[in-house]
# Entry
Amino acid sequence: MGRPFLQGLIGNSYTAQPTIVSRAAQLALVKRARYCPPWRATQELSTASVGMLPMRVQRAVVGASLILLTASLLRGASRVTGKPIPAMRTIEGKWRGQIKFAGGPYEIFYLTVNSDGSIVASWGVTTRWGKVTLRGGKARFDLHTSSGDLYYYEEKQGRVITLRPDFGGWDAQVRPLK
# Structure
């Protein structure tokens, strides 16, 4: 005759006659028993691991983490807005800098902003014509193949324009051409 079901939970001694326990009692003992996977058999179980916390506590921890992550992303995104552009003359002129395409090296990038809002962007052998529009101190560019936000900064080293397209793939940063 074999060992009784859940011998370690019911009794530690093996007897020739199995311990008689009803099926309902056996299931109740299984539900109350703590599961210990074989790779953790020698380690002491603790409730400090996330997997052992009650579900309500796990949800609270995950919820708090998501709130902190969202707040930090929004705080970081608010720093990217740049300085308001009151008029086109603020960014008018010839600019030179760098453009970087995803997975590629930096290339020399030239940007010309005209007083009527038309722009000419060129890099390598590529030239694109487009338009800049101002609305509420924010600028948007449209180069027909891509469009996005144009940010203007005034730093200690001088003025800077950053172009960030809506769907990524590249970004450019330019300074006034001297």
Notes: The chain has a mean pLDDT of 77.
